């Protein structure tokens, strides 16, 4: 009985996965190699409204989005975002924010 089950699994593997799905022709598109750059140091800038803006390595290192590419930040645009108001709609049942105090 066990040999029959093993034979059925083998036939399934050959018939479906190899012949029907052409599993032997699949191409692996994962990253074959990668390069890691270490960036040390801080960058700081005095803004127009007299605030000091500090940028470290976590702020300007972006993970690669495609193969064989390098991202180098050459410009930084500061956006004035603050945690002060509840942005979710109060009518939305699954919103995490119920009012401006939470």
Automatic annotation (TrEMBL):
Pfam families, alphabetically?
P2X_receptor
According to the lineage, what is the superkingdom? Eukaryota
Q: Name one GO biological process term.
A: calcium ion transmembrane transport
Q: Give the InterPro entries listed for this entry.
A: P2X_extracellular_dom_sf (IPR027309), P2X_receptor (IPR059116)
- Report one GO cellular component: postsynapse
Q: Where does the signal sequence lie? A: 1-20
Q: Which Gene3D superfamilies match?
A: atp-gated p2x4 ion channel domain (2.60.490.10)
Q: Where in the cell is it found?
A: Endomembrane system
- Gene Ontology molecular-function annotations: extracellularly ATP-gated monoatomic cation channel activity
Q: Which UniProt keywords apply?
A: Ion channel, Ion transport, Ligand-gated ion channel, Membrane, Signal, Transmembrane, Transmembrane helix, Transport
Family membership noted in the UniProt record: Belongs to the P2X receptor family.
Q: What is this protein called?
A: Uncharacterized protein
What species is this protein from? Adineta steineri
